[in-house]
Amino acid sequence: MTQVTERGTSLPMPPRAPARRRSPAAAACVVGGAVAAVLGLGFLAVLVIVLWISSPFPDSGPGGALHLAAGLWLLAHGTDLVRYETLSGVPAPVGLTPLLLVALPALLIRRAARLGSAAQEDRGAEPLPAGVVFCAVLCGYLGVGALAVVYAAAGPMPADPISAAWHLPAVAALAAAGGVWEYRGRPLGQLPGRLARPRYALALRAGAGGVLVLLGGGAVLVGASLAWRGAEVQGSFAALTGDWSGRFAVLLLALALIPNAVVWGAAYALGPGFALGTGAAAAPLGFGGSPALPRFPLLAALPAEGPGTPLTWAVGAVPVVAGLAVGWFAVRRARDVSYGETALTAALGALVCALATAALAAASAGPLGSRELAAFGPVWWQAGGAALGWTLVLAVPLAVTVHAWRNRPARGLAGAGSEDGWHDSGVREVRWAALRRTAGTLIPDFSSTPAEGDGQPPVRMPEEASRPVPAPPKRPVLVMPGLKLDLTPIPLPALPAEPPPPAPLVPPVTGARVLTRRKPAAETAAATEPAAATATAAATAAAATAAATDPGQAAPTEPDRRPEPEAARID
Description:
Structural class: mainly alpha
Low-confidence stretches: 1-11, 410-420, 449-455, 461-466, 551-559, 565-571
Strand content: under 5%
Strand order of the largest sheet: 6-5-4-3-7
Largest sheet: 5 strands, antiparallel
Helix content: 40-55%
Number of helices: 18
Mean pLDDT: 77
């Protein structure tokens, strides 16, 4: 140790592992996000170019078609476009986003986030953290999105920069976060505090069930309306364009707007309906106002103008079923849950359903112009409020009723009384006899009726006999009619009589007192001989003196020197 210290030589160190560089992996995630954006742009560009080529009267060259594709790609993220070529010369905003078109960028971003998370693990390298993958993919996607905003500004429908500044990052962030979360196995982590209670998971499930019922009802209404007004819908195709390329474009736009129509149908069933401009609205109670509607296949399926009819009022069954679904899914399958907890869970489920309905209504609506068509679609707060009212009124009573019905056997067990036939029908004796026959002599006969030759039943005390004996609780019995049991009694051998207890060897003694053991007589005499002699002489002298004084007194007798017995004396 001294030599090592003096000479300055160092101990050999183990070779260090080469530092893993994460910059290439992060760069790959950035490239993946950019590729996802380019793929979305390329898909829409190819579609627009095909429609432009097949059109007999194209309005602009291929450059205009590519600018329009960039604008549609931004519209798919919820960005508002501005249309400058209007009859009035006033720029008209276009903010109605086809919800089916939103699925294209969302799926591409989600795929890029998943591939970025799995790329390093496939190569055997250290995986990147979830935050790094999320930020890298988002940066690559938003970089291409910024270029698309600049490129679309030179086209016929440029994007609103303020709307693109928050719509584009919001959609990209949600999709990228969903991709990373899905690749990590959908972890939920440890919820803080009260959020970890089961009521919140049940409320989310109940709210999702209510939203699905509302959307399903809206889809049924849209399909029924399209089938009811099939002639008007078919005529709208011929009125818009006369060539097949134009009809195909209108058909694609109608398919992209089908999810919007489903949400509008749900809002119509809830009661508030949806706006068809600033001066018209369609609701179950009536379709009034002066709508300035363009000729479009989906708009041709609207109900007739005027007051509502019993057929339009019947759509109220949709929110009724949605409220019942929220109440049904809010019930927890546990007997220790109180009625207040069940009612609170149903109320939270109704709140979740209302929030989701309001969000879908806001996403499906938007302006199509600057004057009459400035408000087009359902109003988000009206649709959300109606959903909350319907589901809250119906879900809470149903949840409490279902909870009481499921707990009915447990709570009614004590008061069953003699209504069930557990003790009266003999099912208990049948089962016990079958069990004894199967087990042989391992199980004795514990029947309450004594057999012949047995001893007399025990006699009760007066106070015990006068006391009422409560009847044992009876439980419901499931009788299997197809089960064949052999009810032949099993003879059991008589048990041998128990021998009487043996008599005690020593009779019991009462009042005994144990004395301490004394020394033997020889030792006692040897030790007390001088003292005894002295005591004898003193006693003799005293007796002589008494005799001289009183002649009639008896002569003294010699004291008894016999030793006391060692055994215990009995009082």
